[in-house]
Queue: 2 jobs
Job 1
Amino acid sequence: MKDNENEDYQQFLQESLHERDEIQPYTENAQIEIVKTGKSQARRTNIMISLAILLLIVPVMTLATYLYYSIGSRADKLIDIVTNTIYITEPNMSVRKLDLEEDIGLFSMNITFDVFKRIGKEDYKMGNYDVDFLLDQPSFPKKDLYLDRPLAENPDKESEFIFHPKANPPFSITRGMDILNKLPDGTVAEAYISLYQVMKPKDLQNILPKNIEIRWLAVDTGLEASQEDKEGYPITPIGYPPQYDPTTWSPFKTDDNEKAFMDILTELEKNESVATKVARAKSLSLSSRIAYIKKHGIHIYGAVLTGPTEELRKLQDIKEIRAVKAGEVKLWNWE
Amino acid sequence: MELDQAYRENVNDLYRYLYSLAKNHHIAEDLVQEAFYRAYVHLEDYEIYNIRAWLFKVAYHAFIDFQRKNKRLIIQDPLKENGPVEESPEKRLLEKEGFKRLLKDIDSLKEQEKHVLLLCDLHQLTYYQASEVLEMNVNTLKSHLHRGRKKVMKRVKERMRADEG
Amino acid sequence: MELGIKKKHRSNRLQTISGFLSFVIGLISLAGLNVALLMKEKVFPGMFIIQLPMLGFVLGMIGLFTRRRSRLHAVWGLSISLFLFIFTFLMIISSLGINYKP
């Protein structure tokens, strides 16, 4: 019964289909044309889509890069780390962040900025830095410094200008006064002093001649006696400028530079790999140094001063000062 | 070009299929063109085992999209739309009484049953191919087909009885 | 037996003209943007990110209102214009978030 019904259906179906198939809706030519039209239009569409996808690559990657650097102020934080590292590790050096230029490429950022030193009463441009970032990883900065007496790029125990009371200064440091003595009057200069004893930052001002400005203080962090970190890598002094800095966006545009210094250290500790790339020393050992400062408070063992050369010569008569080394020299600008 | 040739052999079949779906010559004609265009646009996206089944799949989707776009349109009476004067395959198709009745019967079925019957019976696709086109489970497809055939047969018999009586 | 379908009053066009134009304008804008980005222009030419995409957007919208023809080109044209607007907007926002100087 069921098979029968199925057969009936199939028969009916075949008849209908036969009727239908007698008709050929399209001629051979019309068929060719339909296929050809479909093909050529599809090809044009596909070319346009491919082109669109290719042209989207650069804008999408550019946008992704900009979003990467702007979300969470990532670029600004990286810039702060770089400039703050310079304040902390380079004696008497400052950065004008307002003039800092950034250039964002594909998944990379380049920053360039000038560094300044105060010699006497004026800030002199002392060179520029050029740092490339690949995402958040910096390359070693390309520095172009025009200093007469630069600090060593690859620091070792002999080459530093400031020494801890417990460290052995090289023989040459004791001759530091020779240069100051030979300089003519009417010049201004920068002098690196090392002390016999660590002392509080405020006490230093009291032992110095009046006409001298303190530009940078070297802070005792427990590593300066040996001048190396736990692994034996050489370290350089870290410190901060004690004076109020009127430069726009300077981290030391504050009345409490000691606090600003500690804040910067804590911030740099979180991004120590970036800071280490920018600093001259291969190691900053920030966690142990921060711990030491928190335990003992801020004590200084050296400083960078500036003033008229005549005034700086008086430093050799001060009994607390163990050694003086001359830095940059400029023509008179004191008054 | 083998592919072009294979496509060309299916032009008429695709027109018949799309005409059964749209019941309008002009729409069917547009959809045939659209289907071949799409078949070429998406060529790279699919592994094609069976060109015929593939073309039916593309045609089916072209029709579904067309239907979606025109949801709000009042469906016009297919017999009246273009006037009877124009010589078209539609006219000639509709001259075949048996086929016209079959289409009407199939059209009265539920949507799913209608699509299954059109593919499996009117265009002789295998169960597997039809299930690919409709993206439907083979077993579901078989039960739709079974029910659809039964309903069509019932209508045919009723009509025959009416003719006799 | 003469069985052919005569294609009277009917072009072979599958896409609407407006959709096609929208897509083409989108491509031109994208190409201009690519050049600007690759040349590292500091100031983007507004034509490629504002004026042309606006035109493409309008044409794309017109192209969407079609029943018979494919919307593919219109959809691409619209998407590219929208992308360019979003691109411009996000670039401005994020540029302000990077080393912003008042």
Job 2
Amino acid sequence: MTITLKVDGKSPDRIPDMKQGLVGTEIARPEGPLKVTGQAPYAAEDLPEGCAFGTLVRAPRWGKVNLRNEERLAAMPGVLSVLRDPAMIRRTAQGGAGKAPAQGMDEADFAGQSVALIVAESFEVARDAARAAVVAVDGPAPAVDPDQQETEGEPDSHGDLEAAMRGAAHALDVTYTTPSMAAAAMEPHAAVAWWDGDGVTVRTSLQMLKHNRKELADCLGIDPSRVRVLSPYVGGGFGSKLGVSPEAVAAALAAKTLGRPVCVVQERRQVFELVNRRSESRQRIRLAADEDGRLVGLGHEALVSNLPDEGFSEPVTQASHFAYAAENRLIGNRVARVRRPNAGSVRAPGEAIGVTAFECAMDELASALDLDPIALRLRNIPDAHPETGQPFSSHKLAQVLTEGAERFGWQDRDPAPRQRREGEWWIGTGVSAAFRVNLLTEAEARITLTSDGARVDTDMTDIGTGTYAILTQIAGEALGLPQGRVTVRLGDTDLPPGSGSGGSFGAASTGSAVWLAALDLRQQLATRLGCDEADLTLQDGEARVANTRQPITEILKGDTLTGHGHVQKGEAAQKVRQATYGAHFAEAAVNDVTGEVRVRRMLGSFAAGRILNPRTARSQCHGGMTWGIGMALTEGLVFDRRDGHVVNRDLAEYHVPVNADVPPLDVHFVDEHDPWTGPLLAKGIGELAICGAGAAVLNAVHHACGVRIRDWPATPDKVLAGLDGWPVPATAGSD
Amino acid sequence: MRPFDYHRARDLQDAQTDYVSGAAFIAGGTNLLDLMKLQVMTPERLVDISRLGLDRIEDDGDGLRIGATVTNSDLAADPRVRRRWPVLSRALLAGASGQLRNKATTGGNLLQRTRCPYFYDPDTPCNKRDPGSGCAAMGGELRNHAVLGTSAHCLALSPGDMPVALRALDAVIEIRGTDGRTRAQPMEGFHRLPGDTPERETVLDPGELITAVRLPAPRGDRQVYRKVRDRASYAFALVSVAAVLRLEGGVISHAALGFGGLGTVPWRDPEVDALLTAERPSAALFDEAATLLLRGAEPREGTAFKLPLARRVLRAVLEEATQ
């Protein structure tokens, strides 16, 4: 049996009826001890016997590729094969593609693309040979600057924004530019492949295995049923592991050619080129407000880039359609075709940079209006979707702002900039709202119930988010089993297809499938007991009906019961606008001598439906807020203006925040009951916490020192250029 | 990484006997191993000098003699250094990360290679990596590049914090020549300007070994190290200043300033030191010093910000040191 639920409307909330008390508690990750003691094997840490090692060869430029010294490379001692199979891929697949991206090694689409695989007996030899490869590339000068290219895409228009801007009491027209960014997951992309007859197993580090299996099958020209993908542990993905990447296809092809397992790991410098990046953006934001700060018009027009023929364009303005009320609206994305590495989904694609820039512009408007920035936002919360008229499933922006403000201590703030000084440092605070669409996607799961307990099976992944923990909780809650009697198996396409990890939909989607599988088992137990499922109470391994109680093991009588759950996206997604809301608060210090910025504290206040596990949810928010610090202050890929290659492709030069950059981060969850999101009433949270986080920091920078940085990141040179308009301080203290 | 031979030297004599053309000495390896993995450096032989007893810090008259393989962590924590040469301790702690400082050595740190991204990228031309091939940084993306001491062949910035402090402290490097004799080389003159041979970064000849760094008694008790960077830790200096000053009767009687983030070598300008000496501290004097320091600077797109930044930081450091 399978319980299938298509989410067409509201779901009843049954969690409060369950008695185990696991959902909503802070259980630790069951796999945590394995991870912190190095016993959880990541993709390239569990190698089969006889494994050979491959290294991808880099094209220094774009154009037609000629590998000049192939024979010499093949003759190097220890080299087993120089592979240039036409099935090898030139780009990383987009999330959910389910099919092969551009294939073939005769052309490089961009500088840094892989154009061959060298396989050797050892990693060292493969790497040496890959460096010795002489790759000649012939192509005209590439188009690498998005601002110099023709663009595609027209904006959506409602009303007349131009007229609204002309007639408004206050009009703001500003442009923000954001750099391209890297996901920079700690575990590099890696794959180990081996064949058994005509079937291949690929042990890798990917986020959405059911799609990855199809992508691999399409690349290899075989049926998906002959592909097994394993990703039991994933050391961070952030979108960069949504689609299959070049090393996995190359490993599978090499393993077939050589008749032995092959392991291919992207070097850190390759990860910066071969993995999908977040597009840079140029965002024109227009705001027209009346005397009271009510928006009468808003415009958000973004320019992003991608390679020719790529379907993805960073959906920068996704949340702008519903975030704020305004009668006259002009919102749209344009994409420029450039020879830079492939752009794709990186943590909260769209809102991460779109909301953040928009929330900086809102702060500018608040300053111009001499209005508290929280008041400005509260004044412009729409009653329904401003463009479609859809009702909101739930709308918690007011609560996250006001509850967050109280906890942060916002009420004592002097709104004027450049008022607070400690030695050389200007101190300021900033606020931002956060918006992120909420998604549910198809997922299946199976639970096997025996006298030993329950085992949850799904090909869902845990990319550091806490999937093992929350699925344990959901199954244990519904089946009345303590944590220790539930095991969870993930990351194997032999298991029922879950949602995969992406778009923050994993917990609600796969969690719902597990929930439905548990309901299936509850019904089977109820049948055995001759009662209604709804009258069954399961707790601590016992079943209670009316005033009788019986251990579940006795009901099973040694049998094994299997429950299947299957959740599908339904009409609920159209009937209502579902989103998550948050508010970020930051205190920043700006050094008046050097332009250096240090974040001193941050608070994030979030509404994301039922919080399944506050510990893992908070951890997600810490991650998102840290991304915000990086976006605001330090991160940005630099492309060479001549050939578009990534110049700063290591972690010494691409500056993610280090511990010293991250102050105490406070996370507050606002209660939310949103029955439209599925049977768990849970919503996505990981990506919400990045949206707008950087705006709180940048708005705090402005409040501290009076300098607006519209070209991110706000590195000392840019802040200094702004500070230069002010006199050099007369006295300087020590640090 | 190319295959290489490895020899663990028993003593100095053995180390130098074992050194052949194309070899490299290795101690902490924090920079060399990275560069070998990228094949920016391809030594055929590594001679390990990390077990030669060069890891001691000894009193040396009124100064200190720091063995070449004393780690950055140990040197920064030495109570004598912290008390009398605090600028050195602070410079060390401003560099790298705790893990790296536990491995990086005094001698090795003096030889740290530039972080120019084109130097790190064997797919681009670089006169330092591949003499005569050209300079990809020219016309490319600049930030961590030099504005002082550049040449038509190289814009590579000298990285590192410790050497900047050592310049201001008038440190002397002990070099053991291939003939087994030791000579004393002041920090002044140890690093070479790129000119038309940017691949030659120091006056060390092949096979010569740094055995120690001598710190003379500090000539100034007012010591400041200040580093400006893109993130709070684990980032190279945009601008750094090491100041060693003495004040007598309100007059600067000794001034020695080292600069990082600006030059192709750890920078010190004797004219700047002379300008400050025998003068009373004032904002005008500090501005004049900055103007003098930057008189020959060659700012480019991407590095021009370093000039106003250096001016601000120098002024703040001098104010702090003369308070």
